[in-house]
């Protein structure tokens, strides 16, 4: 069975899961910090009207209005150039995929995409003002967080100190045949394995895999140095392994063992381990890691409460892949709710956080990124990216850039 295909942006969803509420959401995301020491605490997803269950279910239902002329927006040359490069990478997907927001059709993007390919020395800002017009979804009031690509010690070959196996998707992890197991609430058959007697059963869980259930099956694609950091990278869904010689291997989500995810931050809370009192820890990722390291036996048992296990594949591109299946770029790519923003569309943010201002390209999604005008900005890899992403919590206004003519067709005022 082929591995399930999900967003590389699963890089984001996870570290918010480690908050006291136990949500599996990104740094955002995806959504994802694997700090070695200290660092910012994750920011909570917004609780405003853009995330309420009763929110309109797509951009058309939320309401679409014309925004200001693009010439009135502050577009820096470097910012626009980066956005143009990411837009160009998105175009092969844009011109063929169905837009879940209801705003655009594949043919709407063809003129801009053709021009993007041939846009040479001309002003990048001029490109956007020539082919796009601004739209406001709902009231345009936006909230933005940040995510980044975690980086831990690891390599492709086993060596002293690098003993934590990184497994590929196992061939015996399959979906049950109809009649062999009850279907899931979604109607799909569950993931698991067939025992030697032909009965369908759950796949190996985290404790069993930690104990060696997959050892010797030739599934190892890499080895990590630290089981704790690897646990959090699994929660993220992708990241970078850095070997002692500096070699970097990028790994991405290939599938999951079919067992439910348990946020261990929530488990710690239930056990009274989270708080500000003596013997308690913060509910942030840093606090959880501190507890696990200070109590190795209890910490391993805590991690094994999360029975879910993520399998990986080696990524050979120059960046982690987002939901659009193109690389996400630091400072240029943003995760959105595709019901409200077409994947591949330019987004203009005017926030109370200067770093987040300017043009972005919607190339990713995330479990915590729900509702109109909810965004998660991508900052790359490394310590500065971790600091920026971890501290990102901005509010302001958002505009979606749509190909010229779309708003007229939609009857937007």
TrEMBL record:
<dbReference type="GO" id="GO:0008933">
    <property type="term" value="F:peptidoglycan lytic transglycosylase activity"/>
</dbReference>
<feature type="region of interest" description="Disordered">
    <location>
        <begin position="37"/>
        <end position="59"/>
    </location>
</feature>
<dbReference type="GO" id="GO:0009253">
    <property type="term" value="P:peptidoglycan catabolic process"/>
</dbReference>
<dbReference type="InterPro" id="IPR036908">
    <property type="entry name" value="RlpA-like_sf"/>
</dbReference>
<dbReference type="GO" id="GO:0004553">
    <property type="term" value="F:hydrolase activity, hydrolyzing O-glycosyl compounds"/>
</dbReference>
<feature type="domain" description="Lytic transglycosylase MltA">
    <location>
        <begin position="151"/>
        <end position="313"/>
    </location>
</feature>
<protein>
    <recommendedName>
        <fullName>peptidoglycan lytic exotransglycosylase</fullName>
        <ecNumber>4.2.2.n1</ecNumber>
    </recommendedName>
</protein>
<dbReference type="GO" id="GO:0009254">
    <property type="term" value="P:peptidoglycan turnover"/>
</dbReference>
<keyword id="KW-0961">Cell wall biogenesis/degradation</keyword>
<keyword id="KW-0456">Lyase</keyword>
<dbReference type="Pfam" id="PF03562">
    <property type="entry name" value="MltA"/>
</dbReference>
<dbReference type="InterPro" id="IPR005300">
    <property type="entry name" value="MltA_B"/>
</dbReference>
<dbReference type="GO" id="GO:0071555">
    <property type="term" value="P:cell wall organization"/>
</dbReference>
<dbReference type="GO" id="GO:0019867">
    <property type="term" value="C:outer membrane"/>
</dbReference>
<dbReference type="InterPro" id="IPR010611">
    <property type="entry name" value="3D_dom"/>
</dbReference>
<dbReference type="Pfam" id="PF06725">
    <property type="entry name" value="3D"/>
</dbReference>
<dbReference type="InterPro" id="IPR026044">
    <property type="entry name" value="MltA"/>
</dbReference>
